[in-house]
Amino acid sequence: MRVVIVGATGNAGTALLRRLNAEPDVSVAGVARRLPSPTGVYAKATWSSVDIGVAGAEDQLAEVFAGADAVVHLAWQIQPSHDQRVLYRTNVLGSRAVAKAVLRAGVPALIFASSVGVYSPGPKDAYVNESWPRAGVLPSSYSRHKALVEWMLDQIEADHPQLRIVRLRPGLIFQRAVGTEISRYFAGPLLPAWLLRPQWLPVVPSHPALRVQAVHADDVADAYARAILSDAQGAFNIAAGPVLDPRVAARTFHGVQVPVPGFVLKGAAAASWWLRLQPVDAGWVELGLKAPLMSCDRAATELGWHPRRDAVSALKELIAGMADRAHDDGGPPLSGDPALPGRLGGLLKGRLPGTGNPY
After folding, report:
1. Are residues 17 and 136 part of one domain?
2. How many CA atoms, within 13 angstroms, populate the side-chain half-sphere of residue 304?
3. Which of 164, 217, 241, 244 could be stapled to 175 by a disulfide with Cβ–Cβ 3.0 to 4.6 Å?
4. Domain range for residue 21?
């Protein structure tokens, strides 16, 4: 079986490479804008360099996809947050190029990395299934783009019923090796990462709607592998328990909860983002406050998927990775290069948080 992974050098991509490397009858081809070193987890795959958002990407991808049994589309940009044209080009137009290339190459299965972000605002005290409305949380460009791509897949599914389309909708995805990457994308160069080393957060901002779900990258990879190797079709929510909220965070990191109104959280994010102090706009806060909690019963029943690691241990692993500047220099997205946007070296070169392409 030949599987092509688009965006194979990122968070979920590296975990999926590890998972598929254990499958003796699966050969893997990786697609990335910047190719990794052919070592470690990247060694067993064959590689092609394609920027999915540029003109001509569809032709390049169709050649790579020829003869594939499945394509897994993981490529996605969340930075630079101050250049929405770049994000739309990669996320929406790039996803269209991937889907059209899948059809041209006659690939029988497309597995898409969707997200909890595709859902319309929903409950924080109950769990929604995969039929919950998918209009996204409008202030978040990440959420809007996920909803647009799923709408596009709806049209493709209706026009091409022979194509098996799977949409995995995970919560936050954590693993140690992305510590530096997550710091760059969500915290920026002004975060003194060494303060996280004792795994102690003295103050935890508290709001009743700050309740989110997470899952370890290796568990997400197992869900992707099960979708690839089965005849599953449709959408699957993917998350581990418990729900992460201020109470859980305060207990885990020995901090004190401090109530903060929603408008203060969003205002602080908006102001600090506008001033280029950190790379996360207020849309991410809005998404955290409004994204629903997901039921994962369908993944358990139809994929036989169950997370091996709970959300708290995955979070602790990520925080330890951020404190230790964990990275993987084999693949550019997970690089520890101090000159990249979001690192102090990048700041000294004039690469302010939320600007410059870190991928």
Report:
1. yes
2. 6
3. 217
4. 2-172+216-240
Assess whether pLDDT exceeds 90 at residue 285.
yes
Rounded CA-CA distance 2/24 in Å is 11
Number of structural domains the chain divides into: 2
Q: For residues 276 and 270, what is the distance between their CA atoms, to the nearest angstrom?
A: 10
pTM of the model: 0.95
Same domain membership, residue 168 and residue 186: no
Contact of 218 with 20, CB cutoff 8 Å: no
pLDDT in tens, 204-225: 999 999 999 999 999 999 999 9
